[in-house]
Amino acid sequence: MNLRNIIALNALVALGVGMAFVLYPGFLMASYGVTQIPEGWALTRLFGVTLVSFGLVMWCIKDVAMSSARRIVTVALLSTNIFGLLVVLLQQQAIWSVRNALVGWLTVGVYVVFVTAYGYLLTKTPKPLPI
């Protein structure tokens, strides 16, 4: 497991889920136990566009060569995934668990995988030497 592969996997997940939110907002929200009127799909689609954008940025930076830049990217992605994990855990407890949305636990699991991977890579990767 290396940083390039984890970022590529994270990018593909973000791109795939983002495109699903753009193309099938009603179905995806229903799988989380949320009913929406078609007018509410616009916000869901905007969320999907954000995920697609995030995925494209990750795909473009997966081959960054400088070790100091790779460390900064790893810290940023770890922080983002920790924040996302906290949010989905709160959502799972507050909303999704009431509606028995198993997709909520799948979302928690995805964040746990990426938090673990980025945390592992951050502790495994040596710190760059100061210039």
Structure description:
There is one protein chain. The protein is globular. It has one domain. The protein contains five helices and no strands. The chain is mainly α and 131 residues long. The longest helix is centred in the middle third of the chain and has 30 residues.
The percent range for strand residues is: under 5%
The percent of residues in helical segments reads over 70%
Q: List low-pLDDT spans.
A: none
How many independent structural domains? 1
| Arithmetic mean of pLDDT | 87
Shape: globular
**Structural class based on helices, strands and sheet pairing:** mainly alpha
Secondary-structure element sequence?
Answer: HHHHH
Q: Compute the number of strand runs.
A: 0
Rg on CA atoms, Å: 16 Å
How far apart the termini lie comes to: 28 Å
Number of helices: 5
Largest sheet descriptor: none
Provide the fold topology.
Elements: H1 3-23, H2 25-31, H3 41-61, H4 67-96, H5 102-124
Helix pairs in contact: 1-2, 1-3, 4-5
Offer a few descriptive terms:
131 residues, mainly alpha, 5 helices
Gist of the model:
It contains 5 helices and no strands. The chain has 131 residues and is mostly helical. It has one domain.
